[in-house]
Structures are given as C-alpha cells and as structure tokens.
Amino acid sequence: MPRLTFARLSAALLLGIFAVVLIGEGPAMAEERHRTLFDLLFGTRKAPEQAPPAAPVKRKAKPKPKPSSITNIDTSNPAQPVKKLDTAKHVLVIGDFMAGSVGDGLMDMFAGQPGVVIDEKTDGASGLVRNDHRDWLASLPGLLDETKAVAVVVALGSNDRQRMLIDGTREEFHTPKWTAEYERRVSELTSAATKRQVPVFWVGAPPFQSPSLTADIVTINLMLRRQVEAAGGTFIDIWEGFIDADGKFAATGSGVDGQQARLRGSDGVSLTKAGRAKAAFYVEKPLRRILGDTSVQAPLATANPPISDYGLPQLAMPSAPAPVAITRTDPISMTDPSLDGSNALAARIATSASAPLVAPSARDRLVLHGDTGTAPAGRVDDYKIRTK
Questions:
Q1: Mean pLDDT calculated for residue range 293-310
Q2: Cα–Cα distance for residue pair 6/12, rounded to 1 Å
Q3: Residue 31 pLDDT more than 90?
Q4: 247 burial type by CB count under 10 A (0-12 exposed, 13-18 middle, 19+ buried)
Q5: Does residue 155 contact residue 235 with C-beta atoms inside 8 Å?
Q6: Quick one: which of 148, 241, 234 has its CA closest to 196?
Q7: pLDDT grade, residue 370 (50/70/90)?
Q8: Which of these ranges, 255-269, 278-292, 323-337, has the smallest mean pLDDT?
Q9: Are strands 260-262 and 252-254 parallel, antiparallel or unpaired?
Q10: Paired sense of beta strands 164-166 and 200-203, if any
C-alpha cells in the first residue's frame, strides 16, 4: 500500500471536515447563501440580528381649512335703513331689469338717509319696443303724480334688440323705420318728465358677455344719448366701469371701494350686488345735485335723547363752524433782499439825513476795502504774537 503523502492527508482532512459540516447542518444549508472556504475553516459568522421593522409612523392629517363664512364681499357697505321723513324727496326709478339693479343700488345707498326715498317701479321684461307688455309712455305721467318725484332715473334698452310692430308691420332691428320710431319713443318718454320740470337721468346699458348683443347695445346707447340730451335729459354712461383694459366685457373689476369684486352674474348679463352698487355710483353724483341738503345723512330728532354710560343724556355735538376765509400771502424767498426789512445793501450810505447810518459788515470791509480787521488775541492769524 503506497504511503500517503502529507498533501493527500491534508486534502482528506479537509474533505472530512466539509462532510461533517454538511451532515451537521442538513437541509438548512440549502437555505443559506453559498459558503466560502474561509467559512468552512473558521466557522460561519453569524449575521447581525436585524432589528424588527419599526412600526410605520402615522402622520397626523393636516386639518382642512374651514370654509370662509364670507362668500360675497359687500363692497357697497350700505347704511342701516332708517325711518324716512314725511318731507323726504322721492326719486322714481323705471325701466327693465337693468333699472331694477340700479334701483336696488340706490336704495342701499340712500338707506340711511331719512330725507330721500327711492321709489322703484321697474319691470324686468319691459322695454320701448313692445307696448303690449308694459307701456311706459302711458304709465309715466301717473307714476309722477303718485310719487311726487323730484327726479326720474330710467334704464331701458337692454331688451329692445328685437322687431317692432309699426303700423301693423313688424320691422327688423335697426332698419331706418325701426330707428325713427324708436328715437321718437325715447324722446317722448323723456319729454313727459322734463316738461314737468322733473330731471331725467337715463342710464345706458353696460356691455354684455355676448359679442353680438354688445355690438347692438352700442348702437342703442348712441340713439339713447342723442335723443335724451335733445329732450333735456341727462344720459349717464356706465360702460367704462364694466370693461377691462382692452375694452372688452369684464366679469370682475373695481368696486366702489376700490377693491376687486365680481360685478356680473354667471349669465354674463345680470349685475351682482357689487355691480349694482357700482352702477348706482354713477347716478349718485348728478342725483345729489337735485336732492341738495336732503341727501346728507343726519339722525332723526328724538324727544328723549339716549342716556350715556354715566347716566347723563347724550347731547348732540355742535355743528362745525363755518370755514374762515384765509388771506393769501405771496411766498417769500430766503434770498429775498427784503427779508430783513431792508432792500438796500448794508454798505450803502443813506441819502436821507433822517435815515440811520448802517455800519458796513466784515464782508463789505474785506471786499470793498481789503480790510481784514483785527484778529482776536491768541488766534492763529494774530500776527502780533509772532512779532513779539
């Protein structure tokens, strides 16, 4: 039997060790990763125990923002309604749905003023084309007698883009015959009030979302302006307040308080509360000229004045004094020779014997005579010290 060499003994020993390891571990070996020779000789290193997976952190859901309780910002800021005086002046508002919007805005505007009453007598589907639905030419005189109005606010034309029945024939919109009859009705309606010395404020229609409707409204507004002003009324153009920078229809814009607000409804025709306030804003200024002092907000006089927290009656504050005329004076320049009361040079000798002589200044002595004067003792230009 041949002698086993050391190399063969070593190989046999390694195979034995490998077999022992396989038998000892059994099927678990198949589940583990492939072992290296280093693992067989020095043993298998235990894998570090993995920490159990951390439980998922539940994040708190962010609270949803609460819906704002303010859905529509009231840009008009209407005053609280007060009881109207028996001597209050009445303003009559007639016309279509646009007149109803203007009337609502005026009612909010003058709600806190006891000397003004807004009488809104509008019909949303009315116009000047159809007399069978509402004849404003026939009903206006009776409304003036009923309300004793001192002014009339009219808004008609938004519904007049349709055929008109003239002498049994239906004329199409904007034909020569249609235009002549429409202008006659506008002039007659305006004259029904101006002949009674009642001012008429005719509010033009704003642009609409429909381009074709807007184009026709431009034509109607031109006819309204021409006939209303010819009959002695005042045409109020609100067009600029409801367009954007490009001159097109705008659903939102500046309100009466200068803040951005929605002015038109979703239909592109109606006015929102902010839009009604803005339309009434155009009418307010010329209307207050007619109303005068009665349109100024003032509290009603009460027999028993309210009691303050100290148990004393709250007396009305005295009225502000009348402004005092201030005499205007001419502005005075800092370089004005007359600022010190003299308009002559300091070195000028007075020609009058009674006028006091003015001693020349140090500047005049230096410029005119070259006299630098005597320096005070101890100053750097006191040359007497150096000569001593």
A1: 52
A2: 10
A3: no
A4: exposed
A5: no
A6: 148
A7: confident
A8: 323-337
A9: antiparallel
A10: unpaired
Joined tokens for residue 384: 């007497």
Strands 260-262 and 200-203: unpaired
Taking the C-alpha atoms of residue 223 and residue 201, their distance in angstroms, rounded to an integer, is: 15
**What is the tens place of the pLDDT at every residue in 71-94?**
344 444 556 788 999 999 999 999
Amino acid identity of 67? P
Strands 89-95 and 116-122: what pairing? parallel
Vertex 68 angle, CA 67 and 70, to 5°: 145
3-state SS track over the chain: CCCCCHHHHHHHHHHHHHHHHHHHHCCHHHHCCCCCHHHHHHCCCCCCCCCCCCCCCCCCCCCCCCCCCCCCCCCCCCCCCCCCCCCCEEEEEEECHHHHHHHHHHHHHCCCCCCEEEEEEECCCCCCCCCCCCCHHHHHHHHHHHHCEEEEEEECCCCCCCCEEECCEEECCCCHHHHHHHHHHHHHHHHHHHCCCCCEEEECCCCCCCHHHHHHHHHHHHHHHHHHHHCCCEEECCHHHHECCCCCECCEEECCCCCEEECECCCCCCECHHHHHHHHHHHHHHHHHHHHHHHCCCCCCCCCCCECCCCCECCCCCCCCCCCCCCCCCCCCCCCHHHHCCCCCCCCCCCCCCCCCCCCCHHHHHHHHCCCCCCCCCCCCCHHHHHC
Q: Which CATH superfamily includes the segment(s) 89-295?
A: SGNH hydrolase (3.40.50.1110)
Choice between 3 and 76, residue whose per-residue pLDDT is larger: 3
Q: Return the HEC string of 130-163.
A: CCCCCCHHHHHHHHHHHHCEEEEEEECCCCCCCC
Q: Which residue has the tokens 């101890």?
A: 378
pLDDT digits (tens, 9 = 90+) for 151-164: 999 999 999 999 99
Residue found by looking up tokens 């409707």 in the block: 213
- Tell me the whole-structure pTM to 2 decimals: 0.59
Gyration radius from the chain CA atoms: 49
* Residue 274: closest CA among 70, 68, 67, 78: 78
**The tokens 């290296």 sit on which residue?**
36
The number of residues in the chain equals 388
Q: Report whether 115 contacts 294 (CB < 8 A).
A: yes
Structure-token pair, residue 291: 């109303």
